[in-house]
Amino acid sequence: METQKEEDFVKPTFDPHSIEPELIQKIAYDALVWSSLHGLVVGERNSQRSGKVPGVAMVHAPFALLPMSFPESHWKQACEAAPIFNELVDRVSLDANFLQDSLSRTKKVDEFTSRLLDIHSKMLEMDKKEDIRLGLHRSDYMLDEQTKLLLQIELNTISSSFPGLSCLVSELHRMLLHQFREHLLLDPERVPRNNAVNGFAEVLAKAWTEYNNPRTVIMVVVQPEERNIGREAVAVIYFRAGYAPTDYPSELEWRARLLMEQSIAIKCPSISYHLAGTKKIQQELAKPGALERFLENKDDIAKVRKCFAGLWSLDDTHIMKDAIKRPGLYVMKPQREGGGNNIYGDDVKETILRLQRAGNEEDAAYILMQRIFPAVSPAILMRDGVSHRDQTISELGVYGAYLRNKERVIVNDNCGYLMRTKVSSSNEGGVAAGFAVLDSIYLV
Hints:
Blueprint: H1 21-38, E1 41-43, E2 58-60, E3 63-64, E4 68-70, H2 72-94, H3 96-102, H4 104-109, H5 111-125, E5 132-143, E6 150-156, H6 163-179, H7 181-184, H8 196-211, E7 219-221, E8 237-239, H9 251-262, E9 267-268, H10 271-276, H11 279-285, H12 298-307, E10 311-313, H13 317-325, E11 330-334, H14 346-358, E12 366-370, E13 377-383, E14 386-405, E15 408-423, E16 436-439, E17 441-443
Parallel strand pairs: 4-17, 7-8, 8-9
Antiparallel strand pairs: 1-2, 3-13, 5-6, 5-14, 10-12, 11-12, 13-14, 14-15, 15-16
Helix pairs in contact: 2-12, 6-8, 13-14
């Protein structure tokens, strides 16, 4: 194959919507073939047998046909921040008073958070110590168009999804840019290699080694009829479920969670790591002086704080008045994961007014966050084998892996990324929830 010179490539300011339909059809065909051959597939949502019978009713995962442009400086910023966030989660998890006090009001009005805190309290009563602590995290960001700042959406400490499929999308895009290089004039090497699935597997294997008992087994906690069934080769107790109230339909599931927490197995996440990733803790850490409680290095503190968007509790009278006046500038977030839970636009105003009329403490179940407005970009999205053009916005997630045995840090690094792209008119961004597609980045 001929090697294309670097100067022959153009900066990806190109408009994918300008590509001729015939070429789009060829690229899409090759992408679908590659997806089938390399396992870029998920269970078909509308099939009754999907998630019940392995290999039956599979369809390609939704993906963007070409990678999304992303500034290299912000990419490096997110990668450098990942180990600091890993360490921050670990430090926060060890501060039982901070977790209990920060979530004390939320506990009164949010049954799910209350049950998690009850388990945490039982571990404190037992004086249960997690000598080996394992975290597989993902910090999600959007690039704010007005300020040009990379701002954190949230920090996930439980069930950080799509490490396997995100790797495949990166490889798919590198292949397409190479195969159609004469038409697209884009450099495949500008799509960062994504090692998320291997990174997850390696750190889980190292955790199993630290446990130091070759007779032990691997355990993965998943939701019923899981459709994202690939890349689950993990060790110890790895929670791919347990982050939503629907995962605990009866007392049996809560007893199982308590039993696992009481065991000497390594949990990913432990109950304290789980609580450290709640929205309320994210908001508490954004307060002036809060990071200094957990981090000593001033440069690390500055890097983390630079990522923080505006975050407030609903007892901030000044911010509440502004949110009622200008609701479009804010997002209300409950203590929930998985997409489809946030409140936007005029619904922010109506919810705040309802809570104020109620006069109870239900407002403690929410936080308020500055709404981020990323740039809108043209993209070609693939769903159910069909390509369609749309105006989109994107969200970058950087995975972090952390493993510690008492005072010895064994792993603390970033280990890949997840890019999600959705139509610009959509508020929510979950792939599994049907709002977004998987993507990769092209560094500019």
